[in-house]
Specification:
single chain; 108 residues; mainly alpha; two-stranded antiparallel sheet; 61% helix; 4% strand
Length: 108
């Protein structure tokens, strides 16, 4: 049942980054997209009480992020954390910071 629920969530939440391409800066505002996705899942309490919560969050947040979307991981991290602080004040920023460390280690 949980698998079915997340399969539906992942299929409905998939983001087409090409639609969000910013012609002025020649980039995709991936940090803002992730920030909104994280805040939305926090507000909807999608992961509350689930086993393997961090693994599920990691897969949900970063499933559509590729290496080519992130040019500079340090700038990406700073901008994402700033966006989260601005858009989702109640969210525990340290949790996203931990997930970003996992992401960085996997991309090395």
């Amino acid at each position: 049942m949980i698998f079915l629920t997340f399969s539906i969530l992942f299929s409905r939440e998939s983001i087409t980054y090409s639609k969000l391409y910013n012609n002025e800066t020649n980039s995709i505002d991936i940090e803002n997209i992730l920030s909104n996705k994280i805040c939305d899942s926090f507000n909807k309490k999608l992961f509350e009480g689930l086993a393997n919560e961090k693994i599920l969050k990691f897969n949900y947040y970063f499933s559509n992020v590729s290496n080519k979307d992130i040019k500079n991981i340090t700038n990406f991290r700073k901008k994402l954390l700033l966006d989260l602080q601005k858009n989702c004040q109640e969210y525990e920023i340290s949790e996203v910071d931990e997930l970003l460390e996992v992401y960085e280690n996997l991309k090395k």
